[in-house]
UniProtKB/TrEMBL annotation, chains A, B:
The lineage of its organism: Bacteria, Pseudomonadati, Pseudomonadota, Gammaproteobacteria, Chromatiales. It comes from the Bacteria. GO terms for biological process: tyrosine biosynthetic process. It catalyses: prephenate + NAD(+) = 3-(4-hydroxyphenyl)pyruvate + CO2 + NADH. It comes from Sedimenticola thiotaurini. This is prephenate dehydrogenase.
């Protein structure tokens, strides 16, 4: 599999690492970067991540046979609009957003249909750093990539995106749009909400200075994700509001029961809950994550 | 300050580290360990953490001028009962439990009063490891110790406990019982409930195997505390149910609002919440914790 010309819209950690991985695998001939920040794009050229750049989406996608969208979810629709009429007939479009329903709806809103050559996707990979400087060729090695083809998706387009990710050393899984959005709401979006919500609740309490002063190391680990990019998370919440809202209400119902169990001091019920959670975490999470890292 | 004979009931990470720190500071003459597990106590002698041991609380505290209780909160009352009638007149009793109201109530229930020589306390320190093997002399270096004297507490007893912790390199803060329990509910107990509750909620969903499979590294960090000791946490919840129940209801109210904000897709309100949380975390938490570690 060789990509003739790859257009990357948004050359940061995710887009830059895809470029580096494909170059390392000798699976791409030319890479065109596109974005707003000139310094970042120039740095990307200096680092050899991209061959050239433009600030114009239409120009970036012209003549590309593969287009990768690594823009915030809130910028997807305008990005589709900017490329309309400029895509080559055989160009495949894919993305890295963490909500898939919204990306497909953005495509439909702009093009009036879900493009057969759109393969919505989501690499389950990342670090806490951002920008092209933070990108590296091994980011996707042995990591999971979820692709969410619809009925409209062309099998050839799907096969090309699948091959692209496999060239990066990733493991590709296919999933329905709805199921992807539910799984991500549970494992990523909800935990971020809990951490943002916890820090915000404490910050709004009187004497918050003092409260934070007595927070120990565990609290820092637990709330690290509350230092994530607020704009990105606003976009994720709005984009995935259906699945995330449902998941949050489910969780809050369970927590309401836990609060009542604590208030009535029911030690047996608490021990059962905590033991079940510990077993689940020890069995699934470490096992599963260790095998992929 | 020199302790003539220190009795440590519960020779694990917390009790063992106190012993090591006081020895390193040359602030104690003799240390008697007490606990149920013979292997652990024998290992404590071999490591030089304690001089000798007994399984009998009454014997351990006899002739001690300082008694440190490092037993689970659920075992405090029976431990007070076991030492009744065996404490020397000048013996000071202190502890390391993460809830202070319950310890004071346990003392009152056994002795019919809050002992003037009881100085309830709580070192804000620990690691994920347990047992005497995990203990080390530097655990309390530059860490905060909260002491919660009541009206009944003798100033001399308080001064002796304060001096003991200062000899370990710790920074001692005085706080009311109620305030301690609220602060710990907010910064430690509540986060543990959120993590236990999240893992348990996911574990009880159908297809939980698959959900955990797509959890990324951030999820592992966030839920690490759900692998904590379930028995210990049952005890903490029951002991601090008043403050923790109140704090959980406060948090759940805020999260209910957040869920509604997400469901109506109110991006401006979400951006405000996430930005405020990020600012609070970046400003307070890293700053405060960095200065103490």
């Amino acid at each position: 599999m060789t990509i003739r010309r790859l257009a990357i819209i948004g050359v940061g950690l995710i887009g830059g690492s895809l470029a580096r991985a494909l170059r390392a695998a000798d699976a791409v001939e030319e890479i065109v970067g596109c974005g707003r920040g000139r310094d970042n794009l120039q740095r990307a050229v200096e680092l050899g991540v991209i061959d050239r750049y433009t600030h114009d989406v239409a120009e970036a996608v012209s003549g590309a046979d593969m287009v990768f969208l690594a823009v915030p979810l809130g910028a997807m629709r305008e990005t589709f609009a900017a490329m309309q009429g400029h895509l080559a007939a055989d160009a495949v479009v894919t993305d890295g957003g963490s909500s898939k329903y919204s990306v497909i709806e953005d495509c439909r809103a702009v093009f009036g249909e879900v493009l057969p050559n759109l393969v919505a996707g989501h690499p389950i990979a990342g670090t806490e750093n951002s920008g092209v400087e933070a990108s590296f060729a091994e980011l996707y090695q042995n990591r999971r990539i979820i692709l969410t083809p619809t009925e409209a998706t062309s099998p050839d387009a799907l096969a090309r995106v699948q091959a692209m990710w496999q060239a990066c050393g990733a493991e590709v899984t296919l999933m329905s749009v709805e199921h992807h959005d539910e799984v991500l709401a549970a494992t990523s979006h909800l935990p971020h909400m809990l951490a943002f919500g916890l820090v915000d609740t404490l910050a709004r309490m009187k004497e918050n200075d003092e409260i934070f002063r007595y927070a120990a190391g565990g609290f820092r680990d637990f709330t690290r994700i509350a230092s994530s990019n607020p704009v990105m998370w606003r976009d994720v919440c709005v984009a995935n509001r259906r699945a995330l809202g449902k998941m949050m209400n489910h969780y809050l119902g369970e927590m309401q029961e836990l609060a009542e169990t604590i208030e009535r001091g029911d030690g047996d019920a608490l021990l059962e809950i905590f033991s079940r959670a510990k077993r689940a975490r020890d069995r699934y999470i470490d096992g599963v994550l260790d095998s992929t890292e």
